[in-house]
Amino acid sequence: MEHVQVLIAGGGIAGLSAAIWCERLGLSCVLVEKNDRLGGQLSDIHNQIWDFPPRVYPDGAALLDELLAHRSIRALRPRLGEALRSIDLDKHLVHTDKTVYLADYLIIATGVRPNRIPALVGCSRVLQPWFSTTSQGTAVAGQDVAVIGGGDRAVESACNLLPHVRSLYLLVRSDRLRARPQWVERLRPHPSLHVLWETVVSDCREQNGKAVLTLDSPRSDTPQTLVVDWVLPRIGVRGNSEGLGQLPALEGGYLQTDVNLRVGADWIYAIGDITNGAAYASLSLAVGQAMKAVKHISLQVPSL
Ligand SMILES: Cc1cc2nc3c(=O)[nH]c(=O)nc-3n(C[C@H](O)[C@H](O)[C@H](O)COP(=O)(O)OP(=O)(O)OC[C@H]3O[C@@H](n4cnc5c(N)ncnc54)[C@H](O)[C@@H]3O)c2cc1C
């Protein structure tokens, strides 16, 4: 069993920032990342990033390139393809799918993943969660697309796709949009836009290269089936906290921390999207929390 001072789970911007702060404060760390690459959601950001001061980045890839070139990250030797699985709170043991660590401290920075709609599982006409309506909208030009959701990302996606597609169906589970007013205002009436309120997809089958959706709705003006070329689910995200059932969590798998970002035990911290919830998910907060968690750890270590 390997003994580590600080084990960081997750190689997105939160986990990577924590690793930088470990070096800054003289702590040794090991970072495990489930995927075979670092960066987490940074690779999915195709919009300009102008709210992570002071730089303006054309997209997440540009920011990630800079982050990976950081001296501390180049020296990090992250353990890719290794996922946090469970924790033994009393014994300071952290189980991954590769090994068991005896960790003085654990920082959970495992981020979020898109929610899935069970009825769409296995349908090849469903666009992947990382489909970018900003940079890839022309890929569905002239076609019929159903966007599912009523939050910011659904409405933003609908706005981005409208100039390209033949018909845009926005399927909203409730009778109103949850998106912020600035997005709702952009979604003006448009001949190609059809909003189906109080509508959920209960089944999806493929026919002649199209998706045939079965719709459930109490409204008489909603069709029972909808045939589209592509389906784009945008129904939010949930925290990557599987296997961590003994830690206090909020609805949606988000870990609930105390003011020092500790969760469930005095040696376990959670930072970044896994604890922030959709409303506060941001690069700035993730990076700030990394500093705070590692600083708090450094203040607990007697020899420092
Ligand atoms: C399209 C898009 C645009 C955005 N635009 C902006 C913007 O303009 N400005 C802004 O401030 N924010 C933006 N955000 C939000 C921002 O990207 C996130 O807040 C931030 O990247 C969260 O970083 P994180 O490290 O907490 O999580 P993530 O980036 O999700 O990283 C978590 C990492 O943990 C890994 N992981 C998961 N489970 C495990 C496990 N069990 N064991 C080990 N590793 C695991 C994942 O593979 C991932 O690499 C955007 C997000 C998206 C999707």
UniProtKB/TrEMBL annotation:
<dbReference type="InterPro" id="IPR050097">
    <property type="entry name" value="Ferredoxin-NADP_redctase_2"/>
</dbReference>
<protein>
    <submittedName>
        <fullName>NAD(P)/FAD-dependent oxidoreductase</fullName>
    </submittedName>
</protein>
<feature type="domain" description="FAD/NAD(P)-binding">
    <location>
        <begin position="5"/>
        <end position="284"/>
    </location>
</feature>
<dbReference type="InterPro" id="IPR036188">
    <property type="entry name" value="FAD/NAD-bd_sf"/>
</dbReference>
<dbReference type="Pfam" id="PF07992">
    <property type="entry name" value="Pyr_redox_2"/>
</dbReference>
<dbReference type="GO" id="GO:0016491">
    <property type="term" value="F:oxidoreductase activity"/>
</dbReference>
<keyword id="KW-0285">Flavoprotein</keyword>
<dbReference type="InterPro" id="IPR023753">
    <property type="entry name" value="FAD/NAD-binding_dom"/>
</dbReference>
<comment type="subunit">
    <text>Homodimer.</text>
</comment>
<keyword id="KW-0560">Oxidoreductase</keyword>
